[in-house]
Predict the structure.
Amino acid sequence: MKEPELRISGTTVSVRSGRTRLAEVGVSDFVRALGRASPAGPDIVVPRGVRISRQQGDVLAVAFEIPPGARRVRWIRDDSAEPFGATASYREVQLAFPFVIVLLVLHRGRLTGQQQLYYRTAPLESADDPLLLPNLYNVAEGYGQRCWLCLQHVRQRPEWTPDQTIANAIDHTFSAAFNRSSDVHEGNSYWERMRDVDPRVASVDAWEEATRADRGFPLGVDWRPAGTSIRREFDTMCAELGAALPPEPSATHLAGLVTRARGARRRR
């Protein structure tokens, strides 16, 4: 028996036998069916705290929610001779935070540079919930991201599973010292840009004093809206890695997927 012919034209996929059309479906439905029929990927244990995730082929995007509370962190001294690095001068301070939302996009379990940090004053309920701008060193506007998070020195190992990479990146966010590296390299930081948002966080001393008085005070701060959501940022971050398809993909879009898949195979 002759094998049927698969044709993709515009936004339609059809199955034909000679001149006879046996079946027809939209490209978007075809892609979803193709994904369901593909071999299953590895089972992963998503770290506790991941509230929203998106899997697109080898790309995994996660939104990690850190509950509000006080944390002991290392903060660069105002009189430090160096803006960052091992020779800079630091102090340990106890600071209260609202909900902290960390967005990470991984490719085959590795960080990609698509990584952001935002605040919220309530727990996440959906990917469309609005995000707030933070007030931290090491978070800056840059690399096409509104609140890019510096994870330059986070450890990564080839044998790590995605959950290990995610957990280590979250730990690094607060265990590494907050310094002026973004002010030097990216030309800005949200600590400098957000000093006037509330007198209680106008300086690190004021922040620590407010923490001693009320660890929950950051939930009442009028943090500035970021004008975005997790869904919008996932769309942008994943698109940077060529992982996204439009809502109604066409044969041209699928041809691009074939080209990228062929390139990925050559790099293995």
User: Anything to note?
Assistant: The chain is about 25% helix and 30% strand. The first helix runs from residue 27 to 37. The longest strand covers residues 110-120. Residues 105 and 113 are 8 Å apart (CA to CA).
